[in-house]
Amino acid sequence: MTQSLIEKGSHLNVAMVQQSCNANRNKNIAATCAAIDQAVDGGAQLVVLQELHTSLYFCQTQRCDNFDLAETIPGPSSDYFSKIAQQHNIVIVTSLFERRASGVYHNTAVVFERDGTIAGTYRKMHIPDDPGYHEKFYFTPGDSGFKPITTSVGKLGILVCWDQWYPEAARLMTLAGADILIYPTAIGWDPHDDTNEQKRQLDAWITVQRGHAVANGIPVIAVNRVGFEADPSGHTQGANFWGNSFAVGPQGEFIAQANEKDEIVVHAHIDLQRSEQVRRIWPFLRDRRIDCYQEICERVRD
Asked: Which of 112, 100, 186 is nearest to 144 (CA)?
């Protein structure tokens, strides 16, 4: 593998692809590839795609035929994006619906190295079950732990959507040596939510991830989809995905951010050496009282 950017002390040009999706897989992939072409034209070395980017967000309803959307890894989608990574000489973070075995399915991020090889996978650990987000029906929780994926652009701490609310996940990725935390995401508003509730939800989503950056002294990248997607069951009013893909530095400072509606490629230039500098003045990892945290593994403290 070529020398990493961390070793060279270089900046990293990260492109976040924020897009809407429809029921036509081929059209979704074509739109993604056009966005990747645009990202490469802008000098991207790492391209991050949103959660489950080859299809609609099918988890709004519980339907057994949706399992037909899943595929093996390696499989058709991973083979395709492998070629794209090799063609452009870039690292790509994808998000696929994995069929691991009969009756065992995962929400899986797949990272491709610049030569097209699979650098690693991460299976989503925290699985939600909320109105309009019936993921426990589809996904088995990941079982490989919180381990960064080593690539030529650094060690990528890949986590997925619902994982972003858990400081434990961010901390464990950091302790394992991640250089960046990356969250492919599909999150949106209920159309019935009023403006104030929408603002509270969006602010909370951004704030908690900026908090992971600050608490761990590490850059964070979150890539979310946009657009309205109807609930096929008719039980809810659908989901209005709120976009706002963003990148922040190790003090939570904004580097780049998209808006709530546009399909867009957003570039973020990240200085991977700043984590070292920030951790020297804010040594949170040094001052952790690891001798006093045993109770964190209890469900509740009675």
From this structure: 100
